[in-house]
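Note to self: keep these together.
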Amino acid sequence: MTIPEFSETAIEILDTFTWRFKEVQDACLDGSLTIMIKTLGLIYQPDIDFECKDNIKAYLENLYFHVEENHKQKDFVYNSIKNFAEMNQKAYHGSNLIDLMNRIV
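Structure:
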């Protein structure tokens, strides 16, 4: 399995908790903000495959712009990117998340 395949598998797991288990969705989002910020810091390193970066961006877009209106989801995505940008300015400025953040704000 290659690194991009691992990222696809990880996102499938995230999707399972995000969309299929509505009763634990808010708790998962609340409990995973710090982990998501750290994950973004790891994914947006120069030596990580661009496909992995596209996968996480697509996941965050889907979470933010999903048909169902959920402020927790929107706050999670916004706060994940905002905190990542503050803690990793260089990595953020070279990332594909700027476009997403511009669409959010």
